[in-house]
């Protein structure tokens, strides 16, 4: 197992917690000085203070830690000094671009002007920071220069209009926000909502909105559903004591919250969005919302579970809400683990995988092909056989167990945990293998193996949750907390913790 001294920087970064909370007294790379209505923000990158150990900052270059401090500084200027009227945003490449977009947004809407004084070479992303400002002052000292990013990276940081800055630059309640829109705080809240929704528009994740009884998709919150790739709205109710869900349009859907291209989501989705204005303020049921194109699908109470099942299964999870909620909670942690420790760069490949997309009432699954980000893991067990008997050991010939006997509880749990732990360990072991696959065919086979390992893990986790109570739930969580080669929380089998010459685990 690799020691902390020999672990690669990439490996040491995987499990490190990033803290976005900071303050001017804690800044390492910026100095913020406020004098009446003038704020001076000076960049002084400390080369020996990177966010991650082992990553050296050179000649005023920057990492995520630099932008975290910049974000904090501009947000403080906006809300701690409202007389100055400003704007800003969050995340590297994304964080980097959003920070610059917010500077541009502040110039356009918050009455602030940014001036960039360059007294050192400014290139690539650094020059994008200068381009985001209203004016650039370059010292004529024979060494200070500016340079654009490499041509393939020229559009990595688009401006607020969706174009590169080289082309684009130089040109609480809905009713309450609209009624006091000129108030500085109401304006900043609306602008912040706008920027947050823009992040959803450009997210690399597939988003699904569920409109169920108790939902409140109206006005600003309806924008969440309009930003999603798919929106399911229940046609009717699931229980007799519920009210059928509705959605409602407000004036917030027609201007204040545009997408990154400057048009509203209604304008981007509908040929004649003005027709929707006739329905402002009305509670629209599933059929009306579907006719207007506001939602994608409107399954009734019979089809709802099959259509929107968070966990495809043939074990009757919907009949055991406690178990269903426990597994859905674990599922969120599993998806985070998969994102952090699963196949590296899997969202970028044009590879389609076989996955269950629905389950019939008799327990059979229908399969389709999706890209890795849309893959859905499920729980599918063989159909129970009432005549099945134990085929080996001291209990040979006896009916198979429906409950775990007390005397075998601990060893059986340990067997399941040990087997289950090998599944995510195998995925972690092969995390970067896809980056060297010779063809899409090989890559598809590798990814299919990866997701099958995940499916086997799900089967083990279901057994732990269903038959081993609190101990089982804790063991299921621990399988996501251990990592191959982790000095503090290694995998159970030592073979998965050994370091290999190419930096992977085996």
Automatic annotation (TrEMBL):
GO terms for cellular component: cytosol. InterPro entries: Aromatic_CoA_ox/epox, ClpP/crotonase-like_dom_sf, Ferritin-like_SF, RNR-like. GO terms for molecular function: oxidoreductase activity. GO terms for biological process: phenylacetate catabolic process. This is Benzoyl-CoA oxygenase component B. It comes from Geodia barretti.
């Amino acid at each position: 197992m690799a020691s902390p001294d020999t672990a690669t920087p990439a490996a040491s970064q995987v499990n490190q917690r990033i803290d976005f909370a900071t303050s001017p007294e804690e800044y390492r790379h910026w100095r913020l000085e406020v004098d009446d209505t003038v704020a001076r923000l000076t960049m002084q990158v400390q080369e020996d203070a990177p966010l991650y150990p082992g990553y050296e900052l050179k000649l005023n270059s920057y990492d995520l830690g630099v932008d975290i401090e910049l974000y904090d500084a501009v947000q403080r200027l906006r809300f701690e000094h409202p007389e100055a009227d400003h704007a800003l945003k969050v995340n590297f490449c994304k964080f980097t671009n959003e920070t610059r977009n917010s500077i541009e947004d502040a110039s356009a809407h918050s009455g602030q002007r940014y001036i960039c004084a360059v007294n050192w070479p400014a290139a690539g992303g650094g020059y994008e920071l200068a381009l985001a400002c209203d004016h650039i002052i370059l010292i004529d000292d024979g060494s200070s220069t500016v340079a654009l990013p490499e041509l393939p990276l020229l559009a990595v940081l688009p401006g607020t209009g969706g174009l590169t800055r080289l082309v684009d630059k130089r040109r609480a309640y809905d009713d309450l926000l609209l009624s006091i829109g000129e108030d500085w705080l109401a304006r900043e809240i609306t602008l912040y909502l706008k920027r947050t929704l823009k992040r959803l528009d450009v997210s690399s994740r597939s988003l699904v909105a569920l409109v169920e009884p108790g939902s409140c998709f109206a006005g600003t919150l309806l924008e969440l559903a309009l930003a999603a790739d798919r929106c399911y709205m229940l046609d009717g109710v699931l229980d007799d004591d519920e009210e059928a869900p509705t959605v409602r349009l407000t004036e917030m859907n027609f201007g204040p919250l545009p997408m990154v291209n400057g048009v509203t989501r209604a304008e981007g989705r509908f040929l004649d969005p003005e027709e929707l204005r006739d329905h402002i303020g009305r509670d629209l049921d599933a059929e009306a919302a579907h006719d207007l194109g506001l939602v994608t699908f409107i399954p009734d109470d019979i089809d709802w579970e099959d259509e929107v099942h968070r966990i495809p299964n043939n074990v009757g999870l919907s009949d055991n809400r406690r178990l269903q909620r426990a597994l859905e909670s674990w599922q969120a942690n599993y998806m985070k683990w998969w994102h952090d420790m699963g196949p590296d760069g899997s969202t970028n490949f044009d590879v389609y995988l076989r996955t269950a997309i629905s389950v019939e009432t008799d327990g059979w699954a229908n399969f389709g092909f999706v890209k890795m980000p849309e893959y859905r893991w499920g729980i599918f067990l063989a159909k129970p056989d009432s005549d099945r008997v134990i085929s080996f050991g001291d209990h040979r010939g006896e009916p198979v167990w429906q409950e775990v006997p007390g005397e075998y509880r601990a060893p059986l749990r340990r067997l399941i945990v040990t087997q289950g732990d090998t599944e995510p360990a195998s995925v972690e072991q092969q995390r970067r293998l896809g980056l060297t696959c010779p063809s899409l065919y090989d890559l598809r086979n590798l990814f299919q193996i990866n997701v099958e390992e995940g499916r086997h893990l799900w089967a083990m986790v279901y057994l732990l949750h269903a038959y081993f109570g609190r101990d089982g739930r804790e063991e299921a969580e621990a399988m996501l907390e251990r990592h191959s080669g982790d000095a503090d929380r290694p995998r159970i089998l030592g073979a998965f913790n050994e370091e290999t010459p190419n930096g992977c685990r085996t």
